[in-house]
């Protein structure tokens, strides 16, 4: 069966975060990198700075020459890691098949979510909106039927792009591409290709597989396939799902029990829905609070029997919350997680599940 893969990549990741957190940098050429003075290299540059020719891995001194009036910022890795974990959690709320590639980039296999009324592009759009809502940052997404095309697609309309490569447009997209844009074609291979008069996707397409093997050995068949839009479609999810959690970050810190409990009720509902989608029950409930000063406190309860109903999750979460919450300390985030998950077995199926399963 053909797969549907999304590649998501944040736009000018470090630089966009710096612009978000210092509004005076918005719309300005921002260069994030080594020590702001002279040594070191550029980690990344905002799109405004890229117009001056500044890019990742360039020596800082060169960046200063190209863009003397740029805003030079040293990286804040803790923040970048925090944002990364938020976006990865969003991806995992859609599918278990998430393969992170770096802090700001991942492949998602969403084949099982696609329906006639819910094409992959629409799911990608939802993910982009969720990322924007949770982080105030834009990303670009590419949708296709294998990984290399999905990645190519995500890079085609940056920033804030959404691009689909399908069987109808793949040939037109690949043929004019410079050969260096194909996967596995680094600087050395690119030079060798040029000596063979292979400059574009079309030139690569025109070669026989046998010639490619002669020239590039084991990589020959892969290159032959890439030119035809064929590639690996396996997304390696790095973990088996052992817990399902949802959390909410408040725009302003909250201290009112009533308001917070309404959110806990909603989170319990969402966790329960997710568990039932996957046919899971669990016997451990964890509530997490991040207090106004970023101090995080959690409390967990192990139950004698597994649960999955929203009301059950809520009741336990409610107890944990009342034990955790200090009256004097407003919170900025609350999370509810069900752990120690296992497949719903015959015994703990409700009669409703049973009827539903039989009628499927
Ligand atoms: P990229 O996704 O390659 O670049 P980007 O997000 O800054 O810009 P875009 O995707 O819109 O083209 O890398 C993600 C982050 O990784 C980047 O913000 C900074 C860091 N990085 C480095 O520190 N050094 C590098 O050479 C590269 C390429 C990235
Ligand atoms: Mg990026």
From TrEMBL:
GO terms for biological process: DNA repair; DNA-templated DNA replication; error-prone translesion synthesis; SOS response. Poorly processive, error-prone DNA polymerase involved in untargeted mutagenesis. Copies undamaged DNA at stalled replication forks, which arise in vivo from mismatched or misaligned primer ends. These misaligned primers can be extended by PolIV. Exhibits no 3'-5' exonuclease (proofreading) activity. May be involved in translesional synthesis, in conjunction with the beta clamp from PolIII. Residues 5-186 form the UmuC domain. It is an enzyme of class 2 (transferase). The gene is dinB. Mg(2+) binds at residues 9, 104. GO terms for cellular component: cytosol. It catalyses: DNA(n) + a 2'-deoxyribonucleoside 5'-triphosphate = DNA(n+1) + diphosphate. This is DNA polymerase IV. NCBIfam families: PRK02406.1, PRK14133.1. Belongs to the DNA polymerase type-Y family.
